[in-house]
Amino acid sequence: MRAVTTTTPDPEGHTPDVAATAPVRWERYIAMGDSFTEGLWDPYPDAPDVQRGWADNLAAVLSARRIAAGETPLEYANLAIRGRKLRPVIAEQLDVTIDARPDLVSLVAGGNDILRASADVEAISAALEDAVVVLRASGADVLLGTGFKAGAALSWTNGRTAIFNANLWSIARRTGAHVLDLWGMRSLGDLRLWSDDRIHLTPEGHQRVANAALVALGLEPDDDAYDNPLDAAPPAAFRDAARANAVWMRQHVGPWVKRRLTGTSSGDGRSAKWPTPQTWPRA
C-alpha cells in the first residue's frame, strides 16, 4: 500500500500527490455495524487482542490526509459488535451515533440477517432506510455497504443478498448516501483474502476494502491496484481441499450452528471497542 506523505511541487513545477494533499472535509467519523466493521481476524500488531479492520484503516487514512493538508486530526469511534443483526445494530448504535454529532457515518450490516433461514430482506431493507433517513437529517454523510458475493458453501445466500443490494442502491439514491460496493470487488472472490472462518477478511482484505471505501466517498485510493486479482495460486490437491473443508466445518460451522440452536451470539456480553470519538490514530 502506498504511504500517505506530504509533498510540495518540485523545481520543475510538478503537481503534488492529490491523495496526500487534498483536504478531507469530515472531522468526526462514527462506524456502525457488526463483525465486518469491528474488524475480526485483523489484530493490531502492537495490541493483538484488539481488532483493526477496514473502518479503522479508513479512519487512519482520512486523519492522515487531514493532517497533511494542515487540518486537525480526524475524530473516530467504532461502535460495531460482532454477531449483531441489522435491527439490533440500529437499536443499540443509532442514538449513540446521533448524540456524538458526526459528519460521516458508515452503516454496514445485514449479513447476519441474510445467513438466517427466516431472513425478511424487505423488512431489514426498510429498517436500514429509516436509519439512513435519520442520519442524513442530522447532517451526516452516510456510507453504506452492499453484501458480498459468496461462493462455495455460502453461495445459496447470493439471491437474497442481490435483492438486499438492489434495495440498498435505491436507498442510497433516495437519501444521497455513498455506497461501498463489496459485491462488485473482483479481488474478494479469492479465498486467500478471507480468514479461516471464510466469512471475515484477512488484514490484506481489510486494506483493500478501506481503499474501496475511499473511492466510494469520492476520494483517491491509497493503492490504485486495490481491486486487482491476486497472482494465480497453484491448484489444491483434492485431499488437501477436503481436509481444509473438514477443519472449517468442525472449527467454524459447527460452533455457528450451535449458537443458532441455543439462541446465543458471538457478541453476547461484548461492548464496542472504540465507543467514544477520539483523535485518530489512537495514542
TrEMBL record:
Catalytic class of the enzyme: hydrolase
Any Pfam family: Lipase_GDSL_2
UniProt entry tagged with the keyword Cytoplasm: no
UniProt EC number: 3.1.-.-
Keyword Hydrolase attributed: yes
Region (Disordered): 259-283
Domain SGNH hydrolase-type esterase: 31-208
A GO MF term: hydrolase activity
Keyword terms: Hydrolase
Classification via InterPro entries: GDSL_Rv0518-like (IPR053140), SGNH_hydro (IPR013830), SGNH_hydro_sf (IPR036514)
Domain of life: Bacteria
PANTHER family the record matches: GDSL-LIKE LIPASE/ACYLHYDROLASE, PUTATIVE (AFU_ORTHOLOGUE AFUA_2G00820)-RELATED, GDSL-LIKE LIPASE_ACYLHYDROLASE, PUTATIVE (AFU_ORTHOLOGUE AFUA_2G00820)-RELATED
Protein name: SGNH/GDSL hydrolase family protein
Organism ancestry: Bacteria, Bacillati, Actinomycetota, Actinomycetes, Micrococcales
